[in-house]
Amino acid sequence: MIEVKTIGVVGAGQMGRGIAQVAAMSGYQVKLQDLNRDILAEALEFITEQLHKGVKKGKWEGPFVVETLSRIQADMLKDPLAECDLVIEAATENKDLKFKIFKELDQIVKKDALLASNTSSISITEIAAQTSRPSQVAGMHFMNPVPIMKLVEGIKGLQTSNETFEAVRSVAEKMGKVWISVKDVPGFAINRILLPMINEAIFALYEGVASAEDIDTALKLGTNQPMGPLTLADFVGLDTCLAILEVLHEGYGDPKYRPCPLLKQYVAAGRLGYKTGHGFHNYK
Ligand code: CAA
Question: What is the CATH number of domain 6-182?
């Protein structure tokens, strides 16, 4: 089995940049790839800022920041991914896009390299089937914000080998994460449970049960959640929430997963939550 020393991350959005940061902090060489130059630059700036904040908070010292940053190479091209032992895809939650990326990665990476997807709901079996190495493909579902959240949901596709699953599990554990093993079913475990709660909160808002502020306060103070479900939806991204609900709805064929019309409307209007400055709450 391949020894993982260099990790590629495809996609430098909020998940990809977090995975790249944590991988580099854990001693891995990191190749971060994104087609968008501005997103890559923003990601490097964000990681640098997060690392410097850690120094101010006394979590680590200056030299650790320099060493960590020196391990991250950012590129718009996928060529540097050829050097990776494991590539983690963290692109937008869109099946066709992910299929295309995995087809490309299969051509680029070494024969014995492993591939993982950070998908929050799409079938790992189907993603793996886009490659000539389905036994070397697994799901590694990180939580947002990646540097803070302790969990990684591990998903074994139908053809994922035990060796691959153990290898990606040990990478997640070296990153300081707690691993759970979950079946390859729509939404896996976390989003099958989390998204219906978020969707129900959106229906409550849609039906005028209470204001967005009061719905969030209810769950925050009434059930000790760190943030209310509407704030959490803004934080995850409303487009991502909708994409996950559509996978659940289609995958299970059960109307209980139908996305609330208000969520669809917000996404259509480009109100995607925190990243656009406006979702159920205003962040401008
Ligand atoms: N990136 C990195 N670090 C961040 C961050 C970010 N975007 N936002 C906050 N932090 C860090 C802060 O620097 C701080 O670090 P220290 O403890 O070392 O000082 C820590 O998080 C706590 O931050 P704050 O005190 O400012 O704020 P908080 O107490 O409100 O905590 C939070 C912020 C940790 C995000 C908390 O609100 C929380 O746990 N929210 C829920 C997060 C959650 O449920 N995530 C899962 C989303 S679902 C998902 O990701 C899966 C999916 O497929 C949809």
Answer: 3.40.50.720
What ranges make up the beta strands (E) of 19-164?
Answer: 29-33, 72-75, 86-89, 114-117, 137-142, 151-156
Residue 270 DSSP SS3? coil
148 alpha carbon – ligand 1 mean position (Å): 6
* Domain at 191-276, CATH from 1.10.1040.10, 1.20.1310.10, 3.90.1150.10, 1.10.10.10: 1.10.1040.10
For a substitution probing ligand 1, which of 148, 221, 234, 247 has the most ligand atoms within 8 Å of its CB?
148
Token reading at 247: 């996978």
Residues of the chain with pLDDT under 50: none
Predicted pLDDT at 203: 98
Q: Per-domain residue ranges for the chain?
A: 6-182, 191-276
Give the binding-site residues of ligand 1, using a 6 Å CB cut-off: 50, 53, 57, 120, 143-145, 147-149, 190-191, 194, 226-227, 232, 236
